[in-house]
Amino acid sequence: MTNVAVIYYSSTGNVHQLAEAAATAAEKAGGEVRLRRVAEIAPDSVIAATPDWAKHVEQTKDIPVAALEDIEWADVVLIGTPTRFGLPASQIKQFIDTTGGLWFQGKTVNKVCSSFTSTSSTHGGQESTILALNNTFYHWGAIIVPPGFADPVQFLPGNGNPYGASSVSANAAANVNPENLSAVEFQARRAVEIATALKTGWAAAAV
Fold it and tell me: What is the pLDDT along the chain (207 residues), one digit of tens a residue?
């Protein structure tokens, strides 16, 4: 079994929809999946001032919060984040910054990693957010598996980002294009397939 951790942050539900689609696809591909949200660190007053944000926090309160053990357990780590000025959201960054101990012990090496995002506008920082997030994976010694253009789904009008699946919310809550959901499903399947092949090959080589 290939262990898959889908770890995400979402304020109004768009990245959450992508994460759920990724988790479902990873499970169908044969993975044992943990869907995890990172802890919310924004002040309650800020969240309450945005009804869609407050609603999403309430709706997803029962999803387990990501822990370092989820990273250690996983063979595949899929991370999703909205963009914040072309960068990953601070909530995701805060969680990533706690992984130093795992990194120091070599427990992030050779994990298959991939990332996805959502922005409010078409040119709102999708690629730069994913590339910035991937810097973490270089330091981890992980194996980055992007979707590339390895499947026809990538050529649909709403897709085309070879770095990772991405959606445009147009500032609407839970507003992911079905084409984008298909793209992240492919991305998750690809990551599971690559990780499974690597595990099989390493196991055979060790015999």
Answer: 899 999 999 999 999 999 999 999 999 999 999 999 999 999 999 999 999 999 999 999 999 999 999 999 999 999 999 999 999 999 999 999 999 999 999 999 999 999 999 999 999 999 999 999 999 999 999 999 999 999 999 999 999 999 999 999 999 999 999 999 999 999 999 999 999 999 999 999 987
- DSSP state, residue 66: P
Sign of CA dihedral 48, 50, 51, 56: negative
Q: How far is CA 7 from CA 4, 30, 119, in A?
A: 9, 18, 18
What 8-state DSSP symbol labels residue 146? -
Domain extent, residue 51, equals 2-206
User: Could you give the residue ranges of the DSSP H alpha helices within 6-142?
Assistant: 14-28, 44-48, 51-59, 68-73, 90-96, 100-104, 126-140
* Domains: count for the chain: 1
Name the DSSP letter for residue 50.
S
Answer yes or no: are the C-beta atoms of 137 and 104 closer than 8 Å. Answer: no
| Residue 202's CATH number | 3.40.50.360
